[in-house]
Design a protein that fits this description.
There is one protein chain. The protein has 625 residues and is of the alpha/beta class. It contains 18 helices and 19 strands. Among the domains are: 124 residues, Rossmann fold (3-Layer(aba) Sandwich); 151 residues, Rossmann fold (3-Layer(aba) Sandwich); 162 residues, 2-Layer Sandwich (Heat Shock Protein 90), CATH 3.30.565. α2 packs across α9. The chain starts with 6 loop residues before the first helix and ends in a 14-residue tail after the last strand.
Length: 625
């Protein structure tokens, strides 16, 4: 059986829940922190310290923070009367809800809090931040005060100017007329007194900002500008933000230096500088310790000194400052990367591509040259084989040649004898004598043509390309082969196209192709009962002429037809296998093509096409039989 909870148990539970709710409420209550600015939220360099401090407080604090900003406007003048109403305002604002921590930014804010601590901030912990150690009134510090001071080494800052610009003789120090600026005018003068013999110092506290710009634009050679502060100029005009330094940089004819990195990256050359980030990190760490319960007066922090030197590459280029004169451990910012640094992957990729292309081009040139050499060697070999083929053909055709030449010689002898017999008559018949002499001349010309054609066909170096009538070439070859054709009882049928355009080529080589194909046809028909040689010519295309040589022999084995034009391939028992290969080389060198077809027991047909001569006229007439 389950007992119901007692009234006492319920009360304990309620008490625990209420206690937990209170703890959660307390834990959720933000810590209240006031940032007190010396001049305003936009006065450099303190504005940069405030910005980085906020970032560091948010990063380091384990509690939620309620950060409140207030500015001490009275610090812009030496009149302290306006502080009374400002004190009353702060008392009314924080009397009921006290602050957990005050962070004063700059010396004027620290001095104000110290003057009025007993009136408003008697028990509130406070941190003096971004205040130069010479401006801290250490004797008036209480147990609730912690200091994160800075140390401005003006002598080191001026020595940096002389290091990077050793010929500098004049330094203009930009400083205004507010109380803090007057203080630092005197301090800087005292601190850099050891350099009096090397440089002359000019102050700008007597100039309006407009006059200051005119002065900076007309500085003598070997001058430099040191930017201290410009809060209030001699005309009483207040200057805040980055505008004053930017306007000075735009007109100055000398390089600008300073002491705080808040001005870096806008106008100054650089050097050893105070780091706003370092001060803010240390201040935020102290603030977290105080908010965590530590007494502010027990926390001691050494002053923040100059950081390692840093320089603006753009200003170095503008004023001709070499990297070799920079202090050791200097860092150069805003350096424009070189083409190599900016496009390194692209340059490497492009270089690799160019190298690959160069290698490929060299390889192609080598291959092209090697191929040319091989082609020349091949052409020479083909030419030599063609010549040898002609000589072999001449040996085979010796009987036909003798018969062809013997016919006109016999006719000449007979006609000469006839002419002599006619002349011996008492009354010679001159018409008959004239006719006999004309027959002699005709037979002589015929013999001369036969010899000329034979010499041309078997001449080794004949490469002249001229327009030629393909039908005339066919008839000339058939005329030479007449005896061999008759001896083998071969019937010749010709179907030569009419009005064929001329082809442009080497007549001797083309005759060689026709002769080789004709001789192959004769050989193929030696065992055939029906022996017919058909030779055709026709226009196959508007710009091409086709010649076909057909026989009625045994035909070509289908398994060999694809290799019929290969070198050293032959179907003859005594053949060398070079005739058709030479024919193919000749036709292809003339821009044509050659092929063969065959049907079993019906003979073979060899075709070849040649391009026509563009400039030539059609042949005079066709031939047929």
């Amino acid at each position: 059986m389950i007992r119901p909870p007692s009234i006492r148990s319920i009360g304990v539970i309620v008490w625990l829940l209420a206690l937990l709710a209170c703890q959660i409420g307390f834990a959720a209550e933000p810590k209240r922190v006031m940032l007190l600015h010396s001049f305003g939220r936009d006065f450099k360099p303190w504005s940069d310290y405030a910005t980085t401090l906020r970032t560091e407080l948010d990063r380091q604090s384990p509690w939620p923070l309620d950060i409140i900003d207030h500015s001490l406007v009275s610090a812009r003048s030496s009149d302290e009367n306006p502080e009374g109403p400002f004190v009353d305002y702060l008392r009314a604002l924080f009397d009921k809800r006290p602050l957990d921590l005050i962070v004063s930014i700059g010396a004027p804010a620290a001095a104000f809090v110290q003057r009025h601590r007993h009136e408003v901030f008697a028990r509130t912990p406070m941190i003096f931040m971004a205040v130069e150690q010479r401006r801290v009134q250490y004797s008036r510090l209480t147990e609730n005060d912690a200091v994160v001071a800075v140390w401005i080494n003006y002598l080191a800052a001026f020595e940096n100017i002389l290091r990077v610009l050793p010929e500098t003789k004049n330094v203009t120090v930009v400083v205004g007329t507010s109380p803090i600026e007057k203080f630092w005018r005197e301090e800087i003068g005292n601190e850099v007194e050891p350099l009096t013999g090397r440089i002359a110092i000019t102050w700008t506290d007597h100039l309006s900002f407009g006059d200051l710009l005119h002065h900076a634009a007309a500085l003598p050679p070997r001058s430099a500008i040191f930017w201290e502060l410009m809060i209030v100029d001699a005309a009483g005009v207040v200057h805040e933000g980055s505008t004053p330094l930017a306007r000075l940089h735009a007109v100055a004819n000398a390089p600008i230096f300073s002491y705080d990195e808040s001005f870096f990256g806008q106008a100054i050359v650089g050097g050893p500088l105070l780091s706003a980030r370092e001060s803010s990190q240390k201040t935020a760490a102290v603030a977290v310790r105080i908010l965590g319960g530590e007494k502010a007066g027990d926390i001691k922090t050494p002053p923040v000194a100059f950081a390692a030197p840093k320089f603006d590459w753009r200003e170095m280029q503008r004023w001709g400052i070499s990297e070799s004169v920079l202090p050791p451990n200097s860092t150069i910012y805003f350096r424009e990367p070189t083409a190599w640094e900016r496009y390194r992957p692209q340059i490497l990729g492009l270089s690799a591509a160019l190298l690959a292309q160069a290698v490929l081009i060299l390889w192609l040139i080598y291959e092209h040259r090697r191929r040319n050499i091989a082609e020349v060697t091949s052409r020479n070999a083909i030419s030599e084989l063609t010549y040898l083929n002609r000589r072999a053909t001449a040996g085979q055709l010796s009987g036909s040649i003798a018969h062809e030449v013997n016919q006109p010689l016999t006719a000449i002898t007979l006609e000469a004898g006839t002419a002599l017999a006619l002349l011996k008559r008492a009354t010679p018949d001159l018409d008959q004598v004239r006719g006999a002499l004309e027959q002699i001349m005709s037979s002589g010309r015929r013999a001369g043509d036969i010899i000329h054609n034979l010499r041309a066909m078997f001449k080794k170096d004949s490469n002249e390309r001229l327009p030629a009538d393909i039908n005339d070439l066919i008839l000339a070859v058939l005329s030479i082969m007449r005896v061999d054709l008759n001896k083998n009882d071969i019937q010749v049928e010709t179907q030569l196209g009419e009005q064929l355009p001329a082809v442009e080529g080497d007549k001797v080589q083309l005759q060689q192709v026709i002769l080789n194909l004709t001789m192959n046809a004769i050989d193929a028909m030696r065992t055939s009962e029906r022996r017919v040689l058909r030779v055709r010519s026709q226009r196959s295309k508007p710009d091409q002429v086709m010649i076909s040589i057909e026989d009625t022999g045994t035909g070509i084995d289908p398994s060999a037809i694809d290799r019929i034009f290969s070198p050293l391939f032959t179907t003859k028992s005594e053949g060398m296998g070079m005739g058709l290969s030479i024919c193919q080389s000749i036709i292809e060198s003339h821009g044509g093509r050659i092929w063969a077809s065959s049907e079993a027991h019906k003979g073979a047909v060899f075709h070849f096409e040649l391009p026509t001569s563009v400039k030539s006229q059609p042949a005079a007439a066709g031939h047929g039989s």
